User: Fold this.
Amino acid sequence: MSSVSAPPVLYPAKRALMSALWYFEIFQHPLTEEELFRFSNCPGMEREVFKAQLGELVGEGLVFQFDGFYQAQNAPGWVSRRLEYNRRADTFIPIARRMAQLIGSFPFVRAVFVSGSLSKHCVPPDGDIDYFLITEPGRLWLARTLLVVFKKIFLLNSHKYFCVNYFIDTQHLEIEDKNLFTATETRTLLPLYGQEWYEQFCAANNWVNDYLPNYSWHTQHGILPHGQDRIKRSLEWLLSNRLGDWLDHLTMRLTVTYWRRKFRHFDPQTFDNALRSRRYVSKHHPLYFQRKVMGAFAERIGQAP
Assistant:
């Protein structure tokens, strides 16, 4: 009588490696050995142990290796797809740096980081450049509106290189949502402008170590410091008064009213998670990608041995 062998039991170290691969499987994104180590929640694991565990997973047929990349599915086409995305990202990075310098010249902007796919050095054919901004307190919505108006008038409302969709202010640097998705997005942010505020942002979000203990923050080299030229300084002086307060309240009220009308199909909880709108934060994620990713990840984890 033949017997079917049971799947290998995944002990904690191996499961941490597999979980990282399962997460990026959602994006059909294979990882290098170094990336797999960074994204694995295995604090204190020595590199030799990590390599041994990874080798065993490959030998057991749970991990597939193609040209230096690792993935949990036997899909070699993912590698060529990723390399194509990497090459496209190479062309986007110089554009992002120029745009970050431009965005940083706007009143009340203190720091500019790249988020989304480009922050992982991957850009799909329909990809754009997403920016995460830190602003002066009490002027977040005014700064946001100035940037949106600039995009609509001078960039003909193009999102490709100028998608400003997440703002926080300097007094609220800690990300409120805490899960694997937000930890990954927070840790991989690519800082381009506002070095001193990036340092404070890192200090305020050490909670990501609970999810990605092996992933270090970016080095400070090459980040433009926050600066204020004469025009920016003059505009901020002109709006650092009751008129600025009134404009910030007005722009927030008009924006949120428009969003509530446009996304009236969202229940209150979904609206708050996807379009969080407070004086100190503006998040414009109408596709609510976080929920889709975490739902898919939970389903994949449920299928694991």
